[in-house]
Amino acid sequence: MTRFAASMAEHREELVQLDTAIGDGDHGTNMDRGMRKALEKLGAAEQADAGAVLKTVAMALISSVGGAAGPLYGTLLLQMGTALEGKDDVDLETYTAAWRKGVEGVQARGKAEPRDKTMVDALLPALQALERAPDLDSGLQDAASAAERGMLDTIPLIARKGRASYLGERSKDHQDPGATSTYYLCQTAAETLAS
Ligand code: ADP
Ligand code: MG
């Protein structure tokens, strides 16, 4: 989560630019502000386990980010945190189950289907990569590559959910900002957790 916060700070302008093209230009500032808040909360109290860490971040995102992405990332991490509660040793099976819960939560909340041009287009390929992986290390790496492809595959799509959907055809030929931050989340996870 510390590295993801650093990644959101690093990529803030890029995410702002992507969201300026097909939204209201706040995705980078939303994610950066939310993750700064999350780090403050993490520093303020002892965290029992990985599940508690993710839940703390989720609550910070939900309470400090007004846009669509705050509650959606909040749901992702809250569901993952619940699945990882009390787990000391996170293996491929546990991580995959947690990611699955998280993606299901995002889809239940946002009602986005594949190819609607949202973060789901990066989240779901990452899940499928984890489900096929032989071990956690390759799972994390493959999930990051799959999320990157999913992110790039949003470019030709017409948005059917979120603010970008108001543009209809004009949302074509732009990369979805939320799918991009999801790729950075997967990239961070691979860099941090894979050995
Ligand atoms: P807002 O759209 O409220 O300004 P952000 O700019 O922070 O919020 O986030 C925009 C991103 O949120 C989009 O690029 C998209 O990936 C994601 N998003 C929007 N609506 C949905 C939805 N219903 N389901 C999944 N993701 C969504
Ligand atoms: Mg926005």
Give a quick summary of the entry.
The chain is about 70% helix and about 0% strand. It is built from 9 helices and no strands. Helix 6 (about 90-110) runs antiparallel to helix 7 and helix 7 packs parallel to helix 9.
Outline the structure in words.
The protein has 195 residues and is mostly helical. The chain has a single domain, classed as Serine Threonine Protein Phosphatase 5, Tetratricopeptide repeat, CATH 1.25.40. 69% of the residues lie in helices and 0% in strands. The protein has nine helices and no strands. It has helices spanning 2-10, 12-22, 27-44, 50-64, 69-83, 92-110, 120-132, 136-153, 177-193. Helix 5 (69-83) packs antiparallel against helix 6. It is globular. The model has no long low-confidence stretch (mean pLDDT 96). Magnesium ion is lined by residues 19, 23-24, 26-27, 67, 163.
Broad CATH class: Mainly Alpha
Write down the secondary-structure element order. HHHHHHHHH
Distance between the termini: 17 Å
Taken as a percent bin, the fraction of beta residues is under 5%
- Which regions contain 5 or more consecutive residues with pLDDT less than 50? none
CATH architecture: Alpha Horseshoe
CATH topology-level fold name: Serine Threonine Protein Phosphatase 5, Tetratricopeptide repeat
**Biggest β-sheet, characterized?**
none
Class by alpha and beta content? mainly alpha
**Quick one: how many beta strands?**
0
CATH superfamily: DhaL domain
Q: Give the integer mean of the pLDDT values.
A: 96
Radius of gyration: 16 Å
Oligomeric state of the chains in view:
single chain
Q: What is the molecular shape? A: globular
- Give every kind of bound small molecule, once each: adenosine-5'-diphosphate, magnesium ion
